[in-house]
Amino acid sequence: AAINLLERLCLTWMFFFMMCVAERTYKQRFLFAKLFSHITSARKARKYEIPHFRLKKVENIKIWLSLRSYLKRRGPQRSVDVVVSSVFLLALSIAFICCAQVLKGHKTFLNAAYNWEFLIWEAALLLFLLRLASLGSETNKKYSNISILLTEQINLYLKMEKKPNKKEQLTLVNNVLKLSTKLLKELDTPFRLYGLTMNPLIYNITRVVILSAVSGVISDLLGFNIRV
């Protein structure tokens, strides 16, 4: 019993340590995204002591896009995605087991000690996933903020009226900004759940297995068939 308890404690510590590392990576990504969104604002750039430049030249737009791509790829990517996917699959498996136990006998579900352990693990994993989902969503909003490019386009139109002799050059920059806006919209990956990378296989398993299990539990508790 002592060895079994020690093994559980070690495995739990290792698992939650990996989750803390993943959360720290997500916090760093959010910090980079937050500072990146302040680059084109003179007031915010001065407040956070970061470089500032306007997107009024093609070279500046190129630097802005390159910096955005570099910051999004900075830090561990695949290893963190593996950790998050593993946590998601574990939470999915525990939820499926709990649903099966409830279907087997919902009146005696809380009588077993291992069911309480399952519920504690599920609650901890869901809190962690909600935290990552919040950070990932805020990070995506910072990187996908199209209002920055739209603001620069308005500034270019105003500058065209003041400097008609540079209209051709400013028109070129404006066209590049329009193409950049379309590019950023196309880069959004379809399998993302509030900033968490979702594999298509995991997405389909979630939709089929979990919704079926939840439908069975609700039908068993309410006494009539419900399809989710």
TrEMBL record:
Bilayer-crossing regions: 6-26, 82-103, 115-133
Keyword Transmembrane: yes
Alphabetized InterPro entries for the sequence: PHTF1/2
GO cellular component, one term: endoplasmic reticulum
Residue ranges of coiled coil: none
Keywords on record: Membrane, Transmembrane, Transmembrane helix
The organism's place on the tree of life at top rank: Eukaryota
Protein's name according to its UniProt entry: PHTF1 factor
Organism, scientific name: Nyctibius bracteatus (Rufous potoo)
Species classification: Eukaryota, Metazoa, Chordata, Craniata, Vertebrata
Gene of this entry: Phtf1
